[in-house]
Amino acid sequence: MKRTLILLFPLLSAGLLSSAQVRYAGTTVDLVVSGTSTLHDWNMKSVKADCSGVFTLNSAGQITSVEDLVFSTPATALKSEHTSMDNNAYKALKTEKNPLITFTVSSVSITPAKGSASTVTCKGKLNLAGSTRDEQVVALCQPNADNTITVTGIEKISMKDFNIDPPTFMLGTIKTGNDITLSFTLLLKRS
């Protein structure tokens, strides 16, 4: 019996080590918010964010679970090429009372993708301009050889769903569209 346990120990250890939970975090993001207006399409970009979560990877390097995932970015980190546009956007986002845009994940489903990548569908609470709504974000998560994870995705949201009046310019002669697109790339490192 003792000999059998000694022989099984390496197998049990290998099984436990091949799917360990590891906390990952990232502080930089390539986030682009884009939309339309009666004059031209527009973009605002941010490279500041805080994101962390606990990821479990199997022995093949694929993500099998994600827990405690949270994301935040300062609303005023979003910048366009025009200061006046930024100021109108910050006013619409109510940044004085709501300085952060946050997403807190409540449930995750994972589907294997090409190679070691996984499609991760996150449902959670998105807080934008002081309004919180249940939203779904789908991202492609690619574990890398250097023990990082690259997270990319594109989501569309409606400003009015968050009680945001689409900004206007030049006394209302230029109006922005209601729908915006969020595109993001985030690099997560073991923390």
From TrEMBL:
Domain Lipid/polyisoprenoid-binding YceI-like: 50-186
Pfam families referenced in this protein's UniProt entry, alphabetically: YceI (PF04264)
Gene3D superfamilies given in the database record: Lipid/polyisoprenoid-binding, YceI-like (2.40.128.110)
Keyword Signal listed: yes
Domain of life according to the entry: Bacteria
Assigned keywords, A-Z: Signal
Signal sequence segment: 1-25
Name of the molecule in the record: Lipid/polyisoprenoid-binding YceI-like domain-containing protein
